[in-house]
Write a structure and sequence with these properties.
homodimer, 231 residues, alpha+beta, disordered N terminus, DNA-binding
Chain lengths: 231, 231
DNA sequence: CCAAAAGTGTTTCACTTACACCCATGA
DNA sequence: TCATGGGTGTAAGTGAAACACTTTTGG
């Protein structure tokens, strides 16, 4: 590999890697891609790639997400930057990790460009992954579990209109513990953050549930005046 | 500035910057250095510098901290990575920001190498700072306010032995709100995380308070079995 | 003996938890 | 009519918040 230090400063390869979470009924999933490039070829890994000097880190993460999986317009947040010297066997690469929350319903997942394949895996059921991606996955999962309790980001995993049972399931799946139905409903409805759509779900073989949607403007207003969301 | 892309990938300058918090009786302070280098010369800025390809990001942060301020062996945690394209007017520089908590008592602060001067400023009383360091300062302050409530990191700002009043003041200063003395003492003592040193403070013109220290091993044990610290 | 901060309990209120049955719907 | 999940209220317990006076010490 060609190398020449023609810079005033030491220079680094910088990548972004994304942990993409999706909720599949009652399992939390992450998307992995099968690498097409020769290093770690055919191994599963997080989607990601090199940052271009002309784009911000956030832009790079969104671009890679779209390029490698077709996913776009999702909740995306920086997770942590991994900079161990030998985390990439080829050379020193610093990676800025992100995590994304996607609504599984209505996302078309495709494997493109560098990726030979893309697939969803249960968070506790991932194949071995390349580089230090296992550390990234673990940290992302922990961050999600922590953040979901005091920020209403969980809605990003659900369809726009959802039932209270779906909402509760989402929390149960992420937090990995059961919640009491009556207490959950009392609490979430008391927050005044859900709008009753005055619609019911369709095509279910039992009493159809009411549909709600998250009232984001209302949340922002409340948050400003000191309201604390908490599950 | 010389430039030549002799790499397989686009390469980036990567720096680390540190927000150093200290507690000065009843004000939360941050340390800034006056830049000696020509870009933003004489302006105040966060201590920091370029990452060497042969060191991890954490190592780089500790090295810069020591080199520029003489501070070492402190609590240090990665904050966020700032990667806007034009955050450095010279060229694209990605910076990994850290924050540190230091015990003001017993730290010798010096200005060395690249820094012309180093000084403490109240968090709400900082001079204009170079680059996007104001954003970094703001985020660090918010992170500290958030984290101090559910992780016992505040002790890093106090001497090893401290009084309950000092401890309470620390939380009041960071959280910027008053706490009730009796409730605070009840709560913190009930956690069983403080060891009574069986000593009292010296040279005070009033009744001397008992000294305590933080029982870290005990905290780690409790944390493992699901205990949740919370102020 | 005065100034200054240390130290100490109780009551009230709000919130969390535990818990079980009837209802609506489609098959 | 049965199976399936939807939807609802109350009582007990726990933890948070409010609140004021006495004690100790040095000057």
């Amino acid at each position: 590999m060609a190398r020449k230090y023609s810079y005033k400063y030491p220079m680094h390869a910088v990548t972004v890697d994304c942990v993409i979470f999706g909720l599949d009924e009652d399992e939390l999933k992450v998307m992995l891609i099968q690498r097409g490039e020769k290093t770690f070829k055919d191994q599963w890994a997080l989607p990601g790639g090199f940052v271009d000097p002309k784009e911000s880190l956030d832009d790079a993460a969104r671009r890679e997400l779209e390029e490698e999986t077709g996913i776009h317009k999702v909740y995306l947040e920086q997770l942590y930057t991994f900079g161990a010297v030998d985390r990439d066997p080829r050379e020193r690469v610093v990676t800025v990790a992100y995590y994304a929350l996607v609504k599984l319903s209505g996302q078309v997942i495709r494997a493109t460009t560098d990726a030979a394949d893309a697939a969803w895996f249960g968070v506790h059921d991932c194949p071995p992954v390349a580089f230090d991606h296992d550390d990234i996955l673990t940290m992302a999962h922990r961050r999600l579990q922590g953040k979901v309790r005091y920020q209403p980001i969980g809605f990003e995993l659900l369809p726009v209109k959802f039932t209270l049972t779906q909402l509760q399931r989402m929390y149960e799946v992420i937090l990995e513990k059961e919640l009491d139905k009556r207490n959950f409903r009392k609490k979430i409805l008391a927050m005044d953050l859900l709008i009753d759509c005055n619609e019911i779900e369709r095509d279910v073989a039992h009493r159809a549930a009411r549909l709600y949607r998250f009232d984001e403007p209302s949340y922002k207003r409340l948050a400003k005046s000191g309201f604390n969301f908490e599950i």
